[in-house]
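Lecture 7 notes: from sequence to structure.
We start with the chain below.
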Amino acid sequence: MKKPFLMTFILIGITFLVTSFWYFTSGPNSFPADEQLVEEITNSFSILSNSEIQDTVFLDDRHVFVPFKAEDEMYGFSLWKWNNRKWNEVFVSTNDDVRVWKIDSKDPTTFRVVWNYPPQDKVSYMKLYLVHERGLRLVTMKSTTNQLCSLSKRLGCQRIFMEV
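Predicted structure tokens for the same chain:
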């Protein structure tokens, strides 16, 4: 009586482990069509209902940058990530900003700078400044001074996104 119960329990456990492994490690499905992307973006921002997808840029197999143009010459972009067996919208922007997408926050080689400016702005390059402010910290009668540290990088804007 104990042996069939034990074998059934082990079989169910193995089935659960195999199914879980397949569910969480399987690769991405095909990326949604433009119409479906517009529908998802509209769910986030209703004013973007008549958007036109300009391009679909795969940053890797699980992260996608999608620039779009909405009515009234409004340009924006959305960021998409494959997670839990579906494509999820991570971020939507419509305010002409430059965004650093840290795909893996512990690995700086995966950081991407993304933007979508209107062509009439004629942006030929951007200068990015990374600044760590100077400061003084006192802890139990010991002082620590952080020196000003800055880094600048000039990026040409030939492409719609740039790898740093």
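Points to note: The longest strand covers residues 74-83. The two ends are 64 Å apart (CA to CA).
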